[in-house]
Amino acid sequence: MRRREKWQLGLVYLGLIVAVIFFVGPLVYLFITSLKPAVEVFDFSLPSSPSLRNYRAIVNEYPVLVYLCNSSIVSLTTCVLGVGLGALASYAFTRYRFRFSHTMHYSALVLRMLPGMALLIPFYLLFSKYGLVDTKFGLILSNTAFNLPFVMWTLHGFFREIPIELEEAAKIDGCSRLGVLKHIIWPLAIPGIAVTTIFVFINSWNEFDFAVVLASTDVAKTMPVALAGMMPEYGINWDHLSAAGMLYIVPTLILTFIVQRHLVQGLTAGAVKG
Amino acid sequence: MQKLITVEKRRSNTKPQVSDGTFGFLMSLPTFVFMTAVLVYPLGYAFVKSFHDFNLLMPHRSGFIGLGNYITALTSREFRFAVKNTVFFTLVSVGIEFVLGLCIALMLARIKKFRGLFRTLLVTPIMMAPIVAGFMWRFLLSDQFGLVNHLLMSLRLINQPLRWLTSRQLAMWSVIIADVWKTTPFMMLMLLTGLLSLPEEIMQAADIDGASGWQKFRYIKLPLLKPVIQVALLVRLMDAFRIFGMVFVMTYGGPANHTDTLSFFIYRKGFIEFEVGYAAAAAFVMIGLMALGGLLLLYLMNRGARDEA
After folding, report:
1. Which CATH code is given to the segment(s) B81-308?
2. Most buried residue, A176, A234, B39, B297, by CB count within 10 Å?
């Protein structure tokens, strides 16, 4: 009996190791490739002399820093706008009842489910009318709009946890509604807001569907669009491409590690009935 | 500064000037305006355009054609092929992800040592951009020199390299592999969280009654996990149905449209052929299909719940 259990446990660990190889291995392989010279890319071995020359090349020969910079500007501004607006609305929907508050809250969910392509067509038409195609501002607008429902529902989960008694006590002590927001809610909501901000950042950092149409020149082109344009048929090799890819995913990996305790909340916002 | 403080004091001692409802409304007003302007209005705009013959390259050729675009879409073989591809991709990849995610979650729930470490490692791909998952697997699956073909050949499972990305039979499977890699961790994490929150007493009671491992899984864990499974499946199915970026970098819809999904079809029609009205109509058919699928799923799940009650 004991022996059988030991065997079982051994098999379980073996299975998990195989799983880790499948899920982490490809990224490790990509990283190793990024350290190889072009001639060794398709040798299935460790690099003979690992070096950062691909990283240097990608930064010097292509405007990769411009794309990373565009990506950062778009993502950070989306965070500020999206979380700022969304937090106010989310708090209002959690604490106050007013006409259409339910309708608005739930229609946000429906909008979140929409396929991006259904929005991309009118975005393109309207943005070209108002000169917003190929601008960072256009991308910020579309990303913010797409992330607002997400922010509202994620923060709803956090705001709900704050006991209403705290607010009532503060009000009895003579605190105004804005005072409650500033002195009670804000300090308690900071962790939730931080987590939500990180998710919004990753969402817009990864956003490709809109950007591929709305940002095709270097003024606004973000990193994923640039990567998609660097595919081998355009004469760029895997040695350079893997280095560019690594540069692009490092922020995602770090941020994922930071928010790993909240991944479930962030990935199912609104889908879990609140 | 002084003045501000006195103002705040006076306010807090008197009754607020606006009711709670109005206050809440004012707080949500900016978001409401923003979403109306940037989501609802464009959507309505696209809806109107879907009834027009509207090509960006031929501005003169535009006019109201009623349901024309919808009829063209529903009767075209190309569109129906895209629907078929999308449904196939969605069901197969979410199916594999669910089974694989469940297995890994059960294994993780079984162990005590190193669980945190394994969990952290296994969720690495979870927030990865689809574009990166796509181009990385394109590299791993490339015909002549890809790692996957190399491994399969050195294990003597195949004699010659498989044309993963360029053959009609395998191209969709390549996209599925990349998607499974990227999103199985999500399923795994959801199910693991569910498994770990199951009440300990029930498991102990089952042990005392002498339930086998399979019985515990089938008659205790699975029914208790049902709500979690529903959410995970709903989120993933909706997401998989919209797949675009991965197809874009891996196969660009090819070979011969064999990985042409609905999102990619709309992209092609709208931004390569510039048939914007037609693309808009296709997008609304897609929304309709998603709504139908979602309702069907909810119906099936509710029926299952009633059967059990």
Report:
1. 1.10.3720.10
2. B39
